[in-house]
């Protein structure tokens, strides 16, 4: 009888110990979780970090001439550690290139000893000349055949035109669809085998004569032309529709 009671007593002690051990573990896990989430960043802190990263890009990356730069910080895991920093957040990045689609910005609070790397996506758009209707090879571009459209540089990496006057009057060398960017190789302001005006400038004196283009060219391109009178072949710069300027 005494042996049975002793075993029962030992069994009770063992069971109690197991219970308290399990209870202690549960309390420990809860304490860890509470401590972890107590340090997690709030919505306002995350927003502050994203704004700091976007502001850094806005202040350091060169804006496109006449265009726009759209900046958007990536989402941040709400479990990251952050505080209400007692001083303005410090930011830095390894590059200021505007040719990249994403730059990672380091945002940190030195006094509270935390730092977060924030990827910032960039989308750069510039105004380029585009077709307003279907255009066939050989057509001359009129003022209503083109317009200015904001084009993302990530989707267009060739050479286009920024002003409609650069292409109006030019001849189309390939078929174009509505919305297509008019590229430099799509048109010729001066066209091969066609007559041009050769403008020779020396000092303050300007002399003009007629000639024939030997190569195609757009505004600003250097082309070869033949002086119809002297038959001399020279090189000049395309300065207008069917006009080539030679500087001496």
TrEMBL record:
SAF domain span: 126-188
Location in or out of the cell: Periplasm
The keyword Signal appears for this protein: yes
Keyword annotations from UniProtKB, A to Z: Bacterial flagellum biogenesis, Cell projection, Cilium, Flagellum, Periplasm, Signal
Stated family: Belongs to the FlgA family.
General function of this protein: Involved in the assembly process of the P-ring formation. It may associate with FlgF on the rod constituting a structure essential for the P-ring assembly or may act as a modulator protein for the P-ring assembly.
NCBIfam families: flgA_cterm (TIGR03170)
Protein name: Flagella basal body P-ring formation protein FlgA
Organism: Vibrio gallaecicus
Lineage, uppermost ranks: Bacteria, Pseudomonadati, Pseudomonadota, Gammaproteobacteria, Vibrionales
Gene, per the UniProt record: flgA
């Amino acid at each position: 009888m005494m042996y049975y009671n002793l075993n029962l007593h030992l069994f009770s002690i063992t069971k109690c110990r197991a219970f308290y051990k399990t209870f202690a573990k549960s309390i420990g896990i809860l304490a860890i979780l509470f401590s972890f989430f107590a340090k997690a960043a709030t919505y306002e802190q995350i927003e502050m970090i994203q704004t700091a990263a976007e502001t850094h890009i806005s202040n350091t990356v060169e804006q496109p001439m006449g265009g726009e730069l759209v900046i958007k910080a990536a989402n941040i895991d709400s479990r990251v550690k952050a505080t209400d920093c007692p001083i303005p957040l410090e930011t830095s990045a390894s590059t200021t290139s505007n040719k990249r689609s994403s730059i990672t910005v380091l945002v940190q609070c030195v006094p509270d000893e935390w730092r977060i790397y924030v990827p910032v996506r960039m989308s750069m758009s510039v105004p380029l000349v585009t077709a307003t209707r279907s255009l066939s090879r050989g057509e001359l571009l009129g003022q209503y055949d083109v317009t200015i459209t904001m084009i993302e540089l990530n989707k267009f990496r060739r050479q286009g035109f920024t002003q409609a006057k650069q292409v109006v009057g030019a001849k189309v060398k390939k078929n174009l669809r509505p919305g297509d960017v008019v590229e430099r190789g799509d048109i010729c302001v001066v066209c091969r085998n066609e007559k041009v005006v050769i403008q020779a400038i020396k000092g303050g004196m300007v002399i003009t004569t007629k000639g024939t283009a030997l190569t195609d060219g757009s505004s600003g391109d250097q082309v070869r032309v033949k002086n119809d009178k002297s038959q001399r072949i020279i090189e000049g710069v395309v300065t207008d529709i069917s006009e080539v300027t030679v500087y001496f």
